[in-house]
Amino acid sequence: MNFAVLPPEINSERLFSGAGSGPVLAAATAWTGLAAELRSAAAAFLAVTSGLTGDSWQGPAAAVMSDVAASYVGWLSASGAHAEQAAEQAKTAAHVFEAARAVTVEPGLVAANRAQLVSLVGSNLFGQNAPAIATAEAQYEQMWAQDVVAMLDYHAGASSVAAALTPLSWPTQTLAGLAAPAAALGSVARSISFNVGFTNAGQGNVGAANIGDFNLGLGNIGSGNVGSGNIGGINVGSGNRGSYNIGPGNLGNYNIGLGNLGDSSVGFGNAGDHNVGVANAGFNNFGFANTGSNNIGIGLSGDGQVGFGALNSGTGNIGLFNSGTDNIGLFNSGTGNFGLGNSGDYNTGIGNAGATNTGLLNAGLVNTGVGNAGNYNSGGFNTGSTNTGSFNPGDYNTGGLNQGDYNTGYLNSGDYNTGFVNAGDVNTGAFISGNYSNGFFARGDYQNLIGWSYSITVSEFPAYGTLDIPVYIPFTGAIGPITIQEFTIPSLPLDALVYINGTPIPIFYDFGPITVDETTTDPIALNFVWDQLYHYEVGPRTFGPYEIPLFSFPGPGFANSTTSPSSGFFNSGTGPTSGFFNSGAGSLSGLINLGANNSGFANTGIGGLGNSGFINDGALQSGMANVGNTISGIYNSTTLDPTEVANVSGIANTGVDLAGVFRGASRIHNLGFANLGFANLGSANIGDLNLGGANFGSANIGSGNIGFGNVGGGNVGSFNLGFGNLGDHNIGPGNLGDYNIGLGNLGDSNVGFGNAGDHNVGVGNAGFNNFGFANTGSNNIGIGLSGDGQIGFGALNSGTGNIGLFNSGTGNIGLFNSGTGSFGIGNSGNYNTGIGNAGATNTGLFNTGLVNTGVGNAGNYNSGGFNTGSTNTGSFNSGDHNTGYLNSGDYNTGLANSGDVNTGAFISGNYSNGFFVDGDHQGLIDGTPGFFNSTTNPPSGLLNSGEGSESGVGNYGVGNSGFLNFASVTGAGSSGLLNVGALQSGILNLGSTISGFGNTGSVTPAFVSGVANAGTRLSGFFFTGTGP
């Protein structure tokens, strides 16, 4: 039948009507079942005849019978293999049909085009609709061409499937015909044509994973192709979807060139038929970027024109020599493309004839990569769909050169395999021709299985003998005495009305009260002895054997717990599945995927519609870190519901019907992940013009800053140069105040180290306008002076109760401390342990906040470094109650999350699990964020309990971050590890308002920092009691 002469109304209706591929797949299942029964029968028959031959079958007649039985066993085995071949060919036929229907125009679209044409013609009274009529006719011609290509592909694929089928031979019927089976086998052997390579289905192929005949290359579906990844016949090139093409990436027939959509075009990026040139949209054009038919020239719009038009024809194009609509680039002829020579729609790249592709020369749909003729693939030259890898004719594979479906590995012609060159199904290993097996070169089924099971076996044991049991039980005692206390029965009135001869006579009488005196009964003695000898004879009898199963996880693969048998390692869910650590309903391949029909790594599917690639969340996506539906490329998202088609390709776009790089309102000019704002370079920034990570504000350079114009990390304020500053215009680390130059200063306009006050120059001064070391007071010049306006040298320490050198303040131990109760060097705050802390009760370096354990924290109650938020465990967090790094939101567990209550990385939404997620409530298990949490309010993280909200692992209470902390006060959590109490940071502390390691507070708040201290207002190491 010549499909080219049939209009799309007929071709589309034929492919979309009827039962579809269901009956063929049902037939494949039936053939598979028959194959299994034949293999089982052959095994049973062989076992019986082998036993007879070695026992009762002796002599010449028995030898003849043995030969016949062996021939019959061989026929059963060959028939089983034939049934397996028929099942595989039926599956291939179903795949060919689904592939053809995927590219066929839906009948509704054809009907809508014809209805539009009728409307336009009917209202074309003055010729005003001529351009629109021409466009509608051009679209109709494209539909015609697309349907013809689909039907030709289907015909070629179905023909190759039919050609691969061979008739089933019958076994011999008489003993005299024993030579016939040998002759038949010789005939079959002579009819076999050899392929060169692995996992080719057909004959005369040179390469690997070809389905068809006489292909030279990899992963072709069809016959006579020279190249790789072609769907069709007689193509020279790669990634073509059609027949008789010369060149790569053509969608159609008889094209010479690359990326042409239609038939019989010569050139690059043409959409239509019989075009010669580049980027022509229409029919019979010669030149560049013409829109219409029968044009000769450049940039012409219309029909039959000769000459030069505009630089672009069509509508809304930006660039040079584009035809079509809303394209950006050069020589694009479709709609909404970004790049060079794309003839399809919404593509980003070069020479894509399909739709919504990111890459080069893709003729299919929603691919990320090169030369994919199939759909939803991440990789190169895939003729199947939803593969992660290259040269796969099958579907949902992770790897390369797989003819079958749902494989993880390479060169598998069966289904659900994990490994290499497996011809059977559900195998883990390599070169396995059987099914449900583990290992290498296994031919049978269920071979080399390692189940996770354990049972206790009690062997058979006899029991016999005699048993004498002497029983001697003396029993003495008494019952009583029993005393009944005195009790009184109150009076009971008895009133009655008696009729005698009709006359009523009332009767009134009170009964009682009655008093019973106390009564005591003497004890009753009990005294007897049970003295008896019991004699029993036991046996003889036998018990057992007994097997007590404790647990069992049988099946192929290793440590899988799927409902249906799976290959691979540690997979769970319904299955069948291949790969590693996959879970959820349905079938998958790859690593750590969740949901049905995913391939690749860490993808989450919805509604049974999977993804290929890496860390995608949604449906029908390829590439990396995309969120939505029908998206290719890297880090794209949509503003639609995940169930709605977005048609987005490229890099870092947000919206609908987009191609290119960084397009869409919320992503304009941001470079990085999870940014909210404009022109940020980095990740998890909230604001504009930030360079770094987790900044909250604008124009910051560094990470974890809150404010404007900071250079460094962990600053709270504006125009600070350094890290851990709390204030404005500071130069240096750990200053608490404004306009300080140095480190660890508490106050304003100080120059130096560890000063507490304003306008001091030097080290460890407490007061105002001092110049020198460790002065206490104001306007002093010198060292260790106490008072005001003095010049010279005083004591080694000023202030009260200091131990060390050059300390001012009270109760300090160390050097250059100017606060109260600090231990270390240059602390200007109170009760600090460390160096340069301007805040209070910190353990570490240059902390300007309160009760921090770490370095450069301007916030409070943090365990880590450079946190400007509060109660964080980690570093560079500008939000609160986070466990991780670079989080600008709150209550996150992970990395660079700008939203709230997320578990994962680079999440700008809220209450989500995963990576690179833009929306809310994404990737959840059982509808709650995190994993295995039991809190009242939503937390992030793992195994948290209590009222929530929290982040981290194993915390109890409210407001904790970190690991295994217990909050004793509602809403006053801790950061760090194994802390019990409230408002703490560090490790193994007990109490309230404590930083450091292993400290215990005796009152609330305790104000303790350091290591292993017990008491209140303490810093340092191993102190007890009460400090200053």
TrEMBL record:
This is PPE family protein PPE6. Pfam families: Pentapeptide_2, PPE. It comes from Mycobacterium shottsii. Residues 2-166 form the PPE domain. Belongs to the mycobacterial PPE family. One of its GO terms (biological process) is response to host immune response. InterPro entries: Mycobac_pentapep, PPE_dom, PPE_sf.
